[in-house]
Amino acid sequence: MVEARKQKIEKMQLESVKFLALGGEEDVTRNMYLYEFQDQILIVDCGLGFPDETMLGVDLLLPDITYLLDACLPEGKATKKIVGMLLTHGHEDHIGGLPFILPQLPSFPLYGSPLTAALANDKLAEFKLQPVVQTVQFTDGVLQLGAFTITFIHVTHSIPDAAHLFIETPVGNFYHGADYKFDLTPACKRYHDRRPHATRKSEPLTPRIRYA
Ligand SMILES: [Zn+2]
């Protein structure tokens, strides 16, 4: 009975995607999310948070990456692999953690839209780190990172070049909606792209997800 239950759980874990919010769920900062399928981890955003008046002596707040350190290090003995990181837009609560967190992790490819990548690379340079974020154009089509297929979707926000992500996995599809605001007259003249939502309507959103 116990063995059968164990096998059922193991099978479910192989056929589902685990979703973790490393920055917690109680506020809107420290954005850092993991999508995990089998032994592959896709990271979305790497932001910081801001201390409130009760946190004397605290300069900034960071997501808790203990799970990543345990699973992905040391290289060679790790049980899981980070296949990449996607940055949705250039606000501090989405990219501000990069200089503090990247040096602690093994290397993996990072991607962001043109302005997001530029701001993230500037931030890394400010901390004397290599500019490793690669640029993705919204017209580039899909990005393949391990078992994950990703489409960047342009959305309007209070910063240009913001993205939502359509993430396809072998067991179902996810729409990762980060910050946005519907702006019918954006200053940069680039409009909220609703086409992907429409063209992908036939592909059901998802599936079996495990919160952990
Ligand atoms: Zn934002």
The CATH architecture is 4-Layer Sandwich
Number of helices: 6
Biggest β-sheet strands, sense, barrel: 7 strands, mixed
Instruction: Catalogue the unreliable spans.
Output: 207-212
How would you portray this structure in words?
By secondary structure, the protein is α/β, with parallel strands linked by helices. The chain has one domain (12-211): Ribonuclease Z/Hydroxyacylglutathione hydrolase-like (Metallo-beta-lactamase, Chain A), CATH 3.60.15.10. It contains six helices and eleven strands. It has a seven-stranded mixed beta sheet with strand order 6-5-4-3-2-1-11. It has a four-stranded antiparallel beta sheet with strand order 7-8-9-10, with no helix packed on it. Strand 8 (148-155) and strand 9 (162-169) form a beta hairpin. The longest helix is centred in the first third of the chain and has 13 residues, at 2-14. 33% of the residues are buried. Mean pLDDT is 87; it is low at 207-212. Zinc ion (ZN) is lined by residues 89, 91, 157, 179.
Outline of this structure?
The protein has helices at residues 2-14, 66-72, 92-95, 98-101, 114-126, 195-199; strands at residues 17-21, 33-37, 40-44, 81-87, 110-112, 133-135, 142-145, 148-155, 162-169, 172-176, 209-211.
How do the helices and strands line up, and which of them pair or pack?
Layout: H1 2-14, E1 17-21, E2 33-37, E3 40-44, H2 66-72, E4 81-87, H3 92-95, H4 98-101, E5 110-112, H5 114-126, E6 133-135, E7 142-145, E8 148-155, E9 162-169, E10 172-176, H6 195-199, E11 209-211
Parallel strand pairs: 1-11, 3-4, 4-5, 5-6
Antiparallel strand pairs: 1-2, 2-3, 7-8, 8-9, 9-10
The protein binds zinc ion.
